[in-house]
Write a structure and sequence with these properties.
The protein has 24 helices and 13 strands. With 444 residues, it is of the alpha+beta class.
């Protein structure tokens, strides 16, 4: 059952019913809505009776929310907050759609559309704000933020999404209440907003907005330190701008890789040194320092261990030289990437984005990129990047050396893998490796 049928059935039984929020916003700018939320004058009990026999699930009866065939259908309501916490919220069902829309965060999200009559309900001039690409809170900005401080981060994300700007009163309230993000917003909710922002092509607008209202320091303090930080003679842009250009250059198809782009040089302010006599700016060890900073800050935001490892590893490896890479070096890099479950193409995408973000140099030439890709593809084909890829096993090692299971077996296998990485896949045949074991490890 599609959402038009749900709306039609509710309307046929005398209930006012509308599509609301993001779906209306997306329709007005010509985008297919990703999610459709429905509000109605029907109570949860009335919704359940009306759709008896259909897939119905009550997910928040106290808040008037029922799932019908996968779509959220909510009763018109007003929320009254008694503190900076969702748990301190009192819900009251109301009769008019305008009352329901008044509880929403931003004007561009506070519109309703009647699928039956084609009427747009827009009591807060959200359509005009959308046209002017303006982010404005519904009613009193301070009250909207107090109701849910996570709206501070959401406002920055929506600014990036519509490539807009803040209404002056909204901007003032965001700056005054920025510390609420540190004190009253669960890290999980901030993480969700970050990853939603990674689906925006120019997500740099999200990070610039967070900086402008003083909130970035609570989310990615290492990134905040990059703002206006000197970058030396090899760059025309400062460190923060370089991060933003790099992240923007990564496709939204790779959200974690895009995040790595925005974080890849956060270690530079942490290791920065300046020699006034020579006029040298140095950032020795910044990749490692940035990797540790990304790991720590993503951990505080409760990213999964695999996501943290993925991003921090890319940050730590991004300075590895690729131009003119040798087969041996390619195999070594592939082994490292394999250990962290990273596709070499993602690593190269980050390197290319990093190159494009340097405004003082020409980006990596297409011919050079093709040569690097070819080198990795050749070595990745039938490559050996872990001991399980070897043509021999631990049992073979024990048989040849006549030893019992123990640490020595693993050491021999690791040494064999190192030799294969150094010399190439030709060494990885059972006959050759058995000979190497017999010849080189009897006294090991």
């Amino acid at each position: 059952m599609g959402y038009p049928r749900i709306i039609k059935r509710l309307c046929q039984h005398g209930y006012e019913t509308y599509v609301v929020g993001g779906a209306v916003r997306d329709m007005l700018i010509g985008k297919a809505p990703a999610d459709v939320d429905i509000v109605t004058s029907a109570t949860p009990e009335e919704i359940e009776v009306l759709f008896e026999g259909y897939p119905v699930k009550t997910v928040g009866k106290a808040f008037g929310v029922v799932l019908v065939a996968g779509y959220e259908v909510s009763t018109f309501r007003q929320d009254r907050y008694l503190g900076l916490d969702d748990k301190a919220c009192q819900v009251t069902f109301v009769e008019a759609i305008e009352e329901d829309l008044s509880r929403r965060d931003l004007t561009i999200n506070a519109m309703a559309f009647c699928d039956q009559s084609g009427a747009l309900i827009d009591p807060h001039n959200g359509r005009e704000d959308l046209k002017k690409r303006r982010i404005r809170f519904v009613g009193n900005p301070m009250e909207r933020i107090y109701e849910d401080p996570n709206r501070i981060v959401r406002a920055c994300r929506f600014l990036a999404r519509i490539d807009g700007s803040f209404d002056p009163q909204t901007f003032k309230a965001l700056k005054e209440c920025g510390h609420y993000v540190r004190d009253h917003v669960a890290p999980d909710r901030v993480r969700i907003e970050i990853m939603k922002a990674m689906k925006i092509r120019r997500a740099s607008r999200f990070f610039y907005a967070l900086h402008d209202i003083g909130v970035l320091q609570y989310i990615f303090p290492s990134m905040e330190k990059c703002y206006s930080h000197a970058h030396g003679p090899h760059h025309l842009e400062d460190v923060f701008d370089h991060l933003m250009i790099c992240g923007d250059a990564v496709s939204i198809r790779y959200p974690l890789l895009k995040l790595a782009g925005y974080l890849h040089d956060v270690g530079k302010p942490l290791v920065y040194e300046y020699n006034p006599e020579k006029g040298h700016h140095t950032f020795y060890g910044h990749a490692g320092a940035g990797s540790e900073a990304a790991r720590e800050e993503m951990g505080l935001l409760r990213f999964s261990n695999s996501d943290i490892d993925h991003v921090s590893t890319l940050v730590g490896l991004h300075m590895r030289a690729m131009e003119g890479i040798t087969p041996k070096a390619a195999r070594r890099m592939l082994k490292t990437l394999h250990e962290h479950d990273i596709d070499f193409r993602d690593f190269l995408r980050l390197r290319l984005a990093d190159s494009q973000a340097n405004l003082a140099k020409r980006p990596m030439a297409i011919a050079d990129l093709k040569n690097i890709v070819h080198a990795f593809e050749v070595e990745s084909y039938e490559g050996s990047f872990s001991v399980t890829d070897l043509a021999v096993t631990g049992k073979d090692v024990m048989a040849v050396l006549r030893i019992a299971p123990g640490p020595k077996v693993g050491k021999v296998l690791k040494s064999l893998l190192d030799r294969v990485l150094d010399q190439g896949k030709e060494l990885n045949s059972r006959e050759t490796l058995l000979a190497v074991i017999a010849r080189g490890f009897q006294d090991a």
